[in-house]
Every structure is written in C-alpha cells, then in structure tokens.
Amino acid sequence: MLVAERYEKIVQLVNERGSIRVSELSQLCGVTEETIRRDLDRLEQAGRLRRSHGGAVSVKDQPEIQRSQPEIPYAEREIMHALEKQRIAEEAVKRIHPNDRILLDASSTAWYMAKIIPDISITVLTNSIKVAAELSTKERVQVISTGGILAHRSLSFVGPLAERSLDAYYVDKAFLSCKGVHIERGLSESNELQARIKHKMIGMTDETILLADASKFGTQAFAQVADLSQVNLIITDRRLKEEEAAPYRALGIKIESV
C-alpha cells in the first residue's frame, strides 16, 4: 500500500467510525503503531482528523465555511486528498496538446500534472519551484519561471515582480487551484499575495481550468481571487454530489468529475 493510499484509508476509517485507536489502525493497515502515530500527526497537521489519547477522531462534521485560513505548507498539501488530486491531474493532462502554451500554478495538483506531462513541445509558465524542477528533466518542454518573492510554505513566487513578469505573456490554458470555491463568492485564497497572482493568471489566458477536489466547494477563504464567470471548466472528483455541482453548471461552467 502506498503512503498516500494509507493516509486515505486512515481518514476513511476515522470518518466512518467517528474515532479509532492506533492499535486497530496498525492491524488494518499492516504497519507498526509508530508508523500510524506519525501518519496521524501529519494528517492532523493537514486538518484531516484530530488526534486523541491513543487514536484519532473525525473532523468531518466541522463547518465548511471558513472566513480565514493559514497557508498550508507544501508537504502537508501533498497528502491532503492525494488520490483525488492525482486523478484530477491525469484528467487535466489530457487537455494538453503539442505546441500549447500553458500556465501551471503552485498547487499540489499542478505538481502532480507536471510529473505526468509527456515530453512534448509545449511552453509552461509557472510560479512554482516544484513544478519547474519536475519539468526540468523533459527536454522538449520549455519552462518559464516568474521569479519574485519566495513564499516558503507554498514554494511559490508571489509579489509585484512575479505579477509584472506575467504581463509579458499570454497562454492558451491556465491550470490552477485555490483554497475555496463558493457559488456566491467565487474563488478565494488564503492570503492576498496568492490571490493577486492567481487573479493575474486568470486574466492572461484563453481558458481557465480550475483543479479543485470536492473539499474546496462551499468554502470561502480570506482573499477573493475571481468571480466564477471567469472559469471555463472545473475538474473535480466524484465526491462532489450532483446537487452540489448543479448551481455551477447553471452558470455555464463545465464540470468534469473523475
């Protein structure tokens, strides 16, 4: 079992039962109790569950609407809904064709995309250190990095220099994620710097493709990025119920669930 798969199994078990002990998780996952304790620590840091004495308890009943959220470190974002993000990335890559000019933001889903993008003749503009590093091994992919102020938690470039560097380019497709997707308040991010550069990205493309797992919907983060009217397509996972997707479809936004 892969680490990401074990994380998802742990969260599923905790949510189904409400609470579960370390010893039981150790037996069900086939790993040591020490490994489970480390897993629970990381999952708690990622907001997936809450540690309790001898085990963990579910947080699934906590309110989804959040007025403000801290920026989550990249290492934690990699494990949050990892399997869903990988499937979303696989679907998104299908929309990339030779000679495309695309933009990838600094989301973990964009990094999953970078890992599986084929070595074909495309241009990729990004503000992500991890995306740029991942694409550096692909000789036919031309990579352009924005530069700017390094946001350590997200390993992304933000700020005025990063925003100004985008003025020199125009891309066919922008693939990006965000902290929150709300039917009335649009797209939102954890802080103003992230919101400003993603707003700029949306303004420099023919097609905005939002990569958002189901946990992002109904959530309002601190800083608004853009209205939903600027989104052409949302790629999400099957946990998003049809009745939840319907209001977005009514706005003319295409939604692909994978």
Write the layout of secondary structure elements.
Layout: H1 3-17, E1 19-21, H2 22-29, H3 33-45, E2 49-52, E3 55-58, H4 74-77, H5 82-93, E4 101-104, H6 108-116, E5 122-126, H7 129-135, E6 141-145, E7 149-151, E8 156-158, H8 160-166, E9 171-176, E10 180-182, E11 186-189, H9 192-202, E12 205-211, E13 223-226, E14 233-236, H10 242-250, E15 254-257
Parallel strand pairs: 4-5, 4-9, 5-6, 9-12, 12-14, 14-15
Antiparallel strand pairs: 1-3, 2-3, 7-8, 10-11, 11-13
Helix pairs in contact: 2-3, 5-6, 6-7
Distance between the termini: 21 Å
Helix content: 25-40%
Which sequence of strands runs across the widest sheet? 6-5-4-9-12-14-15
Number of helices: 10
Shape: globular
Structural class: alpha/beta
Low-confidence regions: 63-69
Oligomer: single chain
User: What is the mean predicted local confidence, pLDDT?
Assistant: 90
- Tell me about the largest β-sheet: 7 strands, parallel
Spell the H/E element sequence.
HEHHEEHHEHEHEEEHEEEHEEEHE
Could you tell me the strand content as a percent range?
15-25%
Radius of gyration: 19 Å
Query: What is the number of beta strands?
Result: 15
Structure characterization notes:
By secondary structure, the protein is an alpha/beta fold. The chain is built from 10 helices and 15 strands. It has helices at residues 3-17, 22-29, 33-45, 74-77, 82-93, 108-116, 129-135, 160-166, 192-202, 242-250; strands spanning 19-21, 49-52, 55-58, 101-104, 122-126, 141-145, 149-151, 156-158, 171-176, 180-182, 186-189, 205-211, 223-226, 233-236, 254-257. Strands 6-5-4-9-12-14-15 form a 7-stranded parallel β-sheet, sandwiched between helices. Helix 2 (22-29) crosses helix 3, helix 5 crosses helix 6 (108-116) and helix 6 (108-116) packs parallel to helix 7. The longest helix is centred in the N-terminal third of the chain and has 15 residues, at 3-17. The radius of gyration is 19 Å and the shape is globular.
